[in-house]
Design brief:
This protein is mostly helical and 439 residues long. It is built from eight helices and seven strands. β2 (323-328) and β3 (335-336) form a beta hairpin. The chain is rod-shaped.
């Protein structure tokens, strides 16, 4: 956008110069018309003097011919300026359209960047919040697992004891069933063999049974109390622990998915930045190498010998690296540009400027007193190189050097014919056409 603005201002300045040239041409045309009127009056006055008519007529004819040619040249110049003005207006409209497109593109990019930045902040906030929630959930899970680990041994012990009791009961029940079966078999055999009735057997069985002792009762009661205490120590069983665990597990998986998305987005951004940096480094190295080669060539031409080079101060980080200019004029040793004289530094800068223009031409360039520190020999070499760029760019030189002025196509200067009144003069330096001399 800055480059387009600068080009627009340059086009406006050029347009103003063209309009001033048109005004000057119109002023000269009016002067020609006044000269034609004066010539007509002189011709009328010459009729009174018949003797001088031939001489005066020849002079008037020559003057009219000269003025007519000047008028035609002025008209051609006016048409040329009008064409240049139309071309400049078209260029200005094109530059304005490009500037609007660039501004629109910049606005879109700024809007996208703001959206991405907002999205990034939102994702960072969500990530921080989710990390806090994840930490809380993890802490809760660890607490539940700790409680479970504490309760599980007691529960296993109780289940083991219960299994042992059930196994004991089953064994005793089986033994009782076997004894009952054996008793029934014995009773049946007694009835069959000895004809003893059921009532007599029941009376004898009751007499043979011995009751439990107090010590046995106390030991069994103590065992029962211990089992009840262990059951009460386990506490109530939470029936919603499984559902809560499943919910926390789903939440954890969701947070992990979000975290993976954030990490992937960060990696994508890093990859994009790396790709842009690689492209920028490659383009910079390519352009830098071209400018370096052109700088060497133009330095040798401008100094009529010697050598120069450009060096990067940091080869690892070319985008942030400084550039050192090394120059060796003829007859001197290789050294930094800061150790050269003023004229040598100026000519080295001119060589670097021409190298930049050769790699990346500019449609218009303004040089302000660039030849001031140069001597005549350097000015000659400078103007010869400058003429090669006229096919690529237009140059406006602000100078007081006569040799540089002689190479110009057009001159614009400021004079003061009267004190305090400035006037702009212009001249086009083109080969003059021969003026026919009247016979």
């Amino acid at each position: 956008m800055q480059e387009l603005t600068a080009q627009r201002e340059e086009l406006r300045a050029a347009l103003a110069d063209k309009e001033r040239a048109v005004d000057d041409t119109q002023e000269r045309q009016r002067a020609i018309e006044r000269a034609l009127s004066d010539t007509q009056a002189a011709r009328d006055a010459a009729q009174e003097h018949q003797q001088q008519l031939a001489i005066t007529q020849a002079q008037v004819a020559s003057t009219i011919q000269s003025l007519s040619e000047r008028f035609k040249a002025a008209e051609a110049r006016r048409q040329e300026l009008q064409s240049d003005r139309t071309h400049l207006l078209q260029q200005r409209e094109a530059k304005t359209l490009q500037r609007q497109e660039a501004a629109q593109r910049s606005s879109e990019l700024s809007h996208q960047l703001a959206e991405h930045e907002t999205r990034r902040h939102t994702l960072q906030e969500d990530r921080s919040r989710l990390e806090v929630e994840l930490e809380a959930v993890s802490r809760s899970l660890r607490d539940e697992e700790t409680k479970r680990d504490e309760v599980l041994p007691h529960l296993l012990t109780v289940e083991q004891q219960l299994s042992e009791l059930m196994r004991t009961i089953q064994e005793r029940e089986q033994q009782r069933s076997e004894r009952t079966f054996r008793c029934e078999r014995l009773a049946e055999r007694l009835r069959e063999l000895y004809h003893i009735d059921e009532a007599t057997l029941q009376a004898e069985r009751a007499a043979d049974l011995s009751p439990l002792t107090e010590e046995q009762r106390a030991a069994m009661a103590a065992d029962v109390q211990k089992l009840h205490a262990k059951l009460e120590g386990l506490g109530p069983v939470s029936l919603g622990s499984v559902e809560e665990y499943d919910e926390l597990k789903r939440r954890l998986e969701f947070l992990q998915t979000q975290q993976q998305d954030l990490l992937q987005a960060r990696e994508d951004l890093k990859s994009s930045i790396s790709q842009i940096n690689r492209t920028a480094r490659a383009q910079f190295r390519e352009t830098f190498e071209k400018i370096r080669q052109e700088f060497k060539a133009y330095f040798t031409r401008l100094f009529d010998g010697g050598e120069a080079d450009l060096a990067l101060l940091d080869q690892d980080d070319v985008l942030e690296s400084g550039i050192d200019i090394i120059a060796r004029p003829p007859g001197k040793r290789l050294q930094s540009i800061s150790l050269l004289s003023g004229g040598e530094r100026a000519l080295t800068a001119v060589a670097l400027l021409f190298a930049l223009f050769k790699v990346r031409p500019s449609p218009l360039c303004i040089l302000d007193e660039i030849d001031a520190p140069l001597d005549e020999a350097n000015v000659d070499r400078f103007t010869r190189v400058l003429e090669e760029f006229l096919a690529l760019s237009q140059f406006i030189l602000v100078t007081h050097n006569k040799k540089t002025i002689t190479k110009a196509d057009s001159l614009y200067g400021v004079t003061m014919e009267e004190p305090g009144i400035s006037k702009i003069l212009s001249a086009k330096l083109t080969p003059a056409e021969p003026v026919p001399v009247p016979a």
